[in-house]
Design brief:
alpha+beta; 5-stranded antiparallel beta sheet; 21 strands; Alpha-Beta Plaits
Length: 531
């Protein structure tokens, strides 16, 4: 090996810490120059001992530096990884300790330590924890792989297990007292995931809810949607989820999220404040499939009706669009289209087959002649749409959006069309679009539910969107307020929104212009617009 002083000068040129790997006649030599700290020599020795170095030396140079040299008889592909880990560990005692912990402890040893900490916690706090916590722990060990345990400390895993236990106990106790109410408990905790070459900041979110209906579904995806509605930049940490087996009337999930940059105090506060409410709106309710054979008599009646609507050569094609059924993967609609077959117009079947919808044509029927010159024809066909494209954030299926998709495609094929059974829907769409533009950025799902919870139905088609905007803003304000109801007067109109039946006790509300009756996130809101 070369003189230490020459080697030190070369290493100093690249800064502290620095390293150099040199090829020799019989193997390779590895040199590290670091600051002189008590733990570094032992740390490097622990890191390279499995490489079986032929020579190993530590020298203090220039009083404040430590030169470590080792000779390996053969070049190993593992050396590069060891160098990176050493370079990271010599920068701080904490990183060195974490790297050694991950290397020194086997997974069995780590699980054993977790078990010891759990036992100690049970003995220390017998009023809070019972020995059934061990059953929770065993399920946790079985469901999660070694990849979960490696970057997480024994203390963090113990905290996760205790949080799951405490939330389960709290929810079951509340459910026993009030079985018809929804009970929610959450816990948000910062986590540091320690990998050999880096650390990641994350948030652990643990959620518990009682089950009110046997057809409820609440899993990782539902929880993530609720979190993303509050923190849009949050991303799921792969492999971090644990969903307890549903042996109790309980949804119990824990997972971790991360984002670019650390989570701010405001992020954690927003989660704690808004997540319990958001969770209720993300529970999925499975529905039994319906069996209802298609009414052929009704279809024939619709065909005849549309044919009678075609009285002039310039009349628009007439269309009736009806929802037929829902399968696991598709929404199925029945479409009846009648039109006048003008010269040089391709047959209706050819036009349909060129459509990206690829409908299944059931029949094409001639409906006679217009003025003994132009034939009238009608087609009955089915259209299938993939259901996933129309799932809303609350896991309901947006049939209105699916209907509009088909109508838009029909207009691209046949030009302007008269939507025979959708005139009111079209007017409502115009009002809602104007309202959406006026409100601007908001919870779109809430805005949709608000609009379709207004009564009487026919007034949705022509009411001034500015009036609805005032009522919507009052609703949003009420959802964030603890007051039983809120009211405001604007441009000669009176607006009021309350929760539950609180408005029944208020005098003077009779024959309102518009009423609101909204179920949202398992809360019931009532509102009125009057003069």
């Amino acid at each position: 090996m070369r003189l230490a002083s020459v080697l030190v000068d070369e290493l100093l040129e690249t800064g502290i810490p620095s390293w150099k790997l040199e090829k020799e006649e019989e193997g390779v030599a590895l040199h590290f120059l670091t600051a002189r700290r008590p733990y570094i020599g032992k740390f490097i020795l622990e890191m390279v001992s499995h490489l079986n170095p032929a020579e190993f030396s530590l020298k203090v140079v220039q009083d404040k530096l430590l030169l470590t040299s080792l000779h390996l008889e053969e070049d190993s592909p593992e050396i590069e990884r060891v160098i990176y880990e050493i370079e990271w560990g010599v920068r701080s005692p904490y990183h060195a300790a974490r790297i050694l912990e991950m290397k020194a402890l086997s997974m069995d040893e780590k699980r054993g330590l977790i078990q010891e900490r759990i036992l100690s916690m049970i003995r220390r706090f017998p009023q809070l924890f019972d020995y059934d916590l061990f059953s929770e722990m065993q399920q946790f060990f079985l469901k999660l792989s070694d990849q979960y345990f490696r970057p997480r400390s024994v203390k963090e895993v113990r905290q996760t297990l205790s949080a799951l236990y405490m939330i389960r106990r709290k929810i079951l106790f509340a459910h026993e007292k009030h079985p018809k109410r929804r009970h929610v408990a959450i816990r948000v905790k910062k986590r540091t995931l320690s990998f050999p070459l880096e650390q990641k900041e994350a948030l652990e979110v643990t959620v518990g809810m009682n089950v009110l209906h046997e057809n409820e579904v609440f899993k990782k995806g539902h929880l993530l949607k609720a979190i993303e509605s509050i923190l849009p930049d949050a991303k799921f940490v792969s492999g971090s989820e644990y969903h307890e087996k549903e042996e109790y009337s309980l949804h119990l999930i824990t997972l971790e999220i991360e984002k670019e940059g650390d989570f701010e105090i405001e992020d954690i506060a927003d989660l704690k404040r808004w997540l319990p409410r958001a969770l209720k709106g993300k529970i999925e309710h499975l529905q039994r499939s319906l069996f209802m054979p298609r009414n052929e008599e009704e279809i024939l009646r619709h065909v005849v009706t549309l044919g009678r609507e075609l009285r002039f050569a310039r009349d628009l094609p007439q269309l009736i669009l009806s929802f037929e059924k829902q399968t696991e993967a598709h929404l199925v609609f029945t479409v009846i289209l009648a039109r006048i077959l003008l010269p040089k117009v391709p047959p209706i079947e050819d036009a349909l087959m060129a459509s990206p919808l690829r409908p299944k044509v059931d029949r094409i029927k001639q409906l006679g002649m217009l003025r003994k010159k132009y034939p009238k024809e009608a087609a009955v066909f089915k259209v299938e749409l993939p259901i996933q494209e129309f799932i809303r954030d609350d896991h309901s299926v947006d049939l209105y959006k699916a209907r509009q998709t088909i109508l838009t495609q029909m207009q691209e094929i046949f030009g302007e069309i008269r939507d025979y059974n959708g005139g009111m829907i079209s007017k409502q769409n115009e009002v809602f679009t104007a309202l959406e533009e006026m409100v601007g950025e908001c919870d779109k799902l809430l805005l949709e539910n608000f609009f379709h919870s207004l009564f009487p139905l026919e007034k949705r088609s022509f009411i001034d969107p500015k009036t609805l905007k005032t009522l919507f803003h009052l609703l949003v304000e009420k959802m964030q307020s603890s007051k039983p109801y809120l009211s405001v007067e604007h441009q000669g109109q009176f607006f009021i929104v309350g929760e539950g039946r609180v408005l029944e006790s208020i005098q003077g509300i009779s024959n309102p212009m518009i009423s609101l009756d909204l179920e949202y996130e398992e809360r019931h809101y009532i509102g009125f617009i009057g003069h």
